[in-house]
């Protein structure tokens, strides 16, 4: 079984994953530069429209996102009737499918994409607070996309340091080439199905732990280290015992993961403002030194999961929301791919090789 590894399934202008050179490119821009210098809304605009927005365009885009944050009454009724033990990703899948009405007819467009990008974090926050018997927080029209998400989860206006860190994370996970969930969305679209259906397919793929799995093992590593003083002794012990060091090495990037580079950059700016980020930054430096000592020439660098874990824990994101938060950001990439697929469509119809018995 090849899993279509190495097979080119589509042409795209949206992103390029350059594993050999450690580059992730969005519409002609390095993703790490975008993450460090632009807002979530600006990068989302770039992926959807193919250019960075002017001030006027950005304001209009921000207003459209804010206008589309509010849940319709029928969707609230659906959310209130779903089984109490239904996890957030399954709820999100069901909720998005309920939006597949006439407003999501063929063919997919940017207004439809804005609707889904805006409403996805609202659904996640609603369900999280509902499951934990917390009062539902209505979306704010005055906060940006990332800040509003944190506000709806906690009921408090988030700290600037947390908004900044989560924004960088969300930009860097917004898009990443022809991954499993993006492929699923494009396959659904290729049948001339609607945008909501395509995103439901993508959510279904993201829900699987082999794709959207949370970086919980990295958090366990950092928890076990516990302090700056304990880092070298702990890591050296693991390497001497031949144990894996979670958060280091990547099957695609043969050099530094550019997403980890950007997240490292933002955490280094925030040293002294958040103890958890301080610990992560120190652990990474110590681990890289020791990996070079124990495994010279292996090119084992920090991957995005290491700093994803650091950032998500720093902003006090519950572990159960790691994959949903990944989904909140990746909805931008999915919708951009769906629109691109629809603009130059051909139905996906791959072949399979029969390996069963042949009747005589």
From TrEMBL:
Which CDD domains does the entry mention? Answer: BsCS-I_like
- Family membership noted in the UniProt record: Belongs to the citrate synthase family.
Which organism is this entry from? Evansella tamaricis
Q: Which UniProt keywords apply?
A: Transferase
Give the catalysed reaction(s), semicolon-separated. Answer: oxaloacetate + acetyl-CoA + H2O = citrate + CoA + H(+)
Q: What's the name of the protein?
A: Citrate synthase
Q: Which InterPro entries match?
A: Citrate_synthase, Citrate_synthase_AS, Citrate_synthase_bac-typ
Q: Say yes or no: keyword Ligase present.
A: no
Q: Which Pfam families match?
A: Citrate_synt
């Amino acid at each position: 079984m090849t899993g279509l590894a190495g097979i080119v399934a589509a042409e795209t202008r949206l992103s390029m994953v350059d594993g050999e050179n450690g580059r992730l490119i969005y519409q002609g821009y390095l993703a790490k530069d975008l993450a460090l210098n632009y807002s979530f809304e600006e990068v989302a605009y770039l992926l959807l429209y193919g250019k960075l927005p002017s001030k006027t365009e950005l304001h209009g885009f921000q207003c459209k996102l804010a206008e589309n944050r509010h849940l319709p009454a029928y969707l609230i009724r659906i959310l209130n009737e779903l089984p109490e033990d239904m996890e957030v990703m399954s709820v999100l899948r069901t909720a998005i499918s309920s939006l597949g009405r006439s407003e999501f007819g063929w063919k997919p467009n940017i207004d439809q994409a804005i609707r889904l990008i805006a409403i996805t974090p609202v659904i996640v926050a609603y369900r999280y607070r509902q499951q934990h018997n917390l009062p539902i927080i209505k979306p704010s029209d005055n906060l940006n996309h990332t800040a509003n998400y944190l506000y709806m989860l906690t009921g408090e206006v988030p700290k600037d340091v947390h908004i900044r860190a989560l924004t960088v994370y969300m930009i860097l996970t917004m898009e990443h080439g022809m991954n499993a969930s993006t492929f699923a969305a494009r396959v659904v679209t290729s049948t001339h199905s609607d945008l909501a259906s395509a995103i439901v397919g993508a959510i279904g793929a993201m829900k699987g732990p082999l794709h959207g799995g949370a970086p919980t093992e990295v958090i366990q590593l950092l928890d076990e280290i516990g302090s700056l003083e304990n880092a070298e002794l702990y890591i050296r012990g693991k390497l001497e015992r031949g144990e894996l060091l979670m958060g280091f090495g990547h099957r695609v990037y043969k050099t530094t993961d550019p997403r980890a580079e950007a997240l490292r950059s933002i955490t280094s700016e925030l040293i002294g403002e958040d103890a958890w980020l301080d610990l992560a930054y120190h652990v990474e430096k110590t681990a890289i030194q020791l990996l070079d000592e124990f495994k010279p020439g292996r090119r084992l660098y920090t991957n995005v999961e290491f700093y994803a874990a650091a950032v998500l824990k720093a902003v006090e994101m519950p572990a159960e929301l790691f994959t949903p938060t990944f989904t909140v950001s990746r909805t931008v990439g999915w919708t951009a791919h769906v629109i691109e697929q629809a603009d130059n469509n051909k139905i996906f119809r791959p072949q399979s090789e029969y390996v069963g018995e042949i009747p005589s």
